[in-house]
Structures are given as structure tokens and as C-alpha cells.
């Protein structure tokens, strides 16, 4: 059987997505030609199929239309050019935005904003998932600054800082991706805006290099690029075998959220409630309840219970359990402790109780979560 030759145009050249494509290519025995920049149509390429990320690049659009005319199968791994008719496998961008909102709402951030450098179709999908029909503030740099000044850090910093300063606090902000989130965090710190106390910032992508190497590490929705690349390649294999394309885009759900310092807080206006939250987070390895927290803050149990529930929307006990489970997730992901050690580190009296409580909150046991 003739070895198939597949063209891969992925921009930017995301390692995880390319790795997913490569895994399928090894299974199928393909020859790959990989390019990450396309100024014009490749000349002289003769192959059997193509995997692309369509953007507002005339050369890419011309390439896809040319391949379509030649009946060479193409699969798009983005959703930036929906008017170009081509089968698609893409991350579920609406769901990414929805997850980000759920994360911020769970931390009691009710004032919300969106930031992106530009606003293409994928940006729109993420924003709509985040907004969920509400009129969420939308700050787009390219709509406010001339294109030749988008890379001017002085202009950008003043612009985003002015937006954030005028916004109601505490503010939860979703950036289009991790790079945009890093720009927002950097601008806030330069202007002495507290992150996450005044502004909680979350990105999308799961880029560890970007998220973990900041003054304040950035929380991110994990875009499953590896699975997207693999499933796109598997669809291309079916198309090259003569199968009909799916009628709708195949959407790959995000893998969840990796919580880091940029959103690692609960928004509260009351000083007593903020102090109660601080107590909870600093005593997660110990058994305690409403009585102990009230005594520490020198307030009555009833007063604390009422203030906490009214402002946070959960009881103090519910918030304590939520914090214990979130800490457990982070410890499990680090893969440096046994389940028994994690149970005691998160304040559970024994591993069995920890496993039952974890499953009740997440739907899976700690071992299955790992």
C-alpha cells in the first residue's frame, strides 16, 4: 500500500497538538511535511491530505480552497474561518469560556470582564461561553489601539490598567489565552493592582511555561491540544479512505482547570469573611468547624454563619470542604505524595473518609482522578 503524504500547517506550532498528530501518523504510517508559516501556497507539493489551522491568512485560505478543488481531503483544527467549508476538529471554545466563568463564580467573583488582543471567531466563542448571555465587559486591544501600536507595551499597560482601575471590584477577568493573561497580570502589578485580591485573572491554553514563570503564576483552562491533534488526524485518515465528512465540527472538551495563584482567592468585601477565609485556608491540615473559626475571630457563631453564607453563597462548612478537595486535586497532580499523605495533609482523619468525600464532590475516587 502506498505511503500517504500529509501536509501539516499548524500556526502557532503547538507542541501538544503536533504530538497528537504525530501519534496518529505513526499508527497510520504517514509521511508528514510540517510547516508553521505560510506566506503563499506551497509549490510542487503533491500529497494525499492536509491538516491546517485556518486563520485570517489569505495564503492558508487559498491553499484549502485549492485542495478542495483537487478533491484532496483537508481537516481544520481551528474555527476562525467558519465561512470556509471544511471538516473541523476543534477544542470546545464555548465550554472553555463557560468553565472559566464557573471557576470565578465559585470564588465569588461576580464582576466579570474579558480581555483579548484581537477578536476573531474563536475569541467570540470563548467570550460567549464566558458571558452566557450577560453583558460582560469586553476589552479588545485592537479595537482601541492602532494596529501598528499593538506591540507598544507603554500604550498597552496604560490602557488595560485604566480599564481595570475603573471596573468594580473585586473583578474576575478571563483573557483569551495564557499569553494575554500574562500581559494583564504584568500590567496590574506595574500599576500596584492586587492580583488576585482586586483582580483575579484566568487564561486559556494550559501553557505551563507561560503560566508558571510569572511573578504570580496564572490559572488556566486546559485546552486539550494533544487530543485535538490526534482526533483531527484520525478524521483525516477516514476521509482519505473515502468516508463522508461529519456534518458538524467535532468538539474536544477542555481537560479542566489548573488553579494557580492568579485566582487562588475567594472574593469577599467583609473583613470578617475575608479573615474567616484566611483561617480556613491556613488550617486545612487540621480538624475545625464554625465554632473554632468564630472563636478565633471573636464573633458569635450565628453572626459569622449568617455573614459568610450571605456573602459567599455557601456555608462555612461547605467552603471548607471545597477548599480541602481543591487542595487534594493539586497535591494529586503533583504526584509526590501517597493518597494517605494527601488525606492527612487535607485534614481528613483517614484515607477511607478522604476517598469517599472526594468521590462525593468530584464523581471519581482520588486514584481514578490521578
Plain-language structure description:
- α1 (15-28) runs parallel beside α8 (225-240), α3 runs parallel beside α4 and α5 (153-166) packs across α6 (178-190).
- This protein starts with a strand and ends with a helix.
- Helix content is 47%, strand content 13%.
- The protein is globular and about 80 Å long.
- It has helices at residues 15-28, 58-69, 93-106, 121-131, 153-166, 178-190, 208-212, 225-240, 271-282, 290-297, 301-312, 316-334, 339-345, 351-362, 366-369, and strands at 5-9, 31-35, 49-52, 74-76, 89-91, 111-116, 137-140, 171-175, 199-204, 219-221, 250-252, 257-258.
- The protein has a six-stranded mixed β-sheet, with helices on both faces. Strands 2-1-3-4 form a four-stranded parallel β-sheet, with helices on both faces. Strands 5-11 form a two-stranded parallel ribbon.
- The chain folds into three domains: 5-91 and 225-253, Rossmann fold (3-Layer(aba) Sandwich); 93-223 and 258-263, 3-Layer(aba) Sandwich (Rossmann fold), CATH 3.40.50; 271-369, Arc Repressor Mutant, subunit A (Orthogonal Bundle), CATH 1.10.10.
- It is α/β, with parallel strands linked by helices.
- The mean pLDDT is 91.
- α6 links the parallel β8 and β9 (199-204).
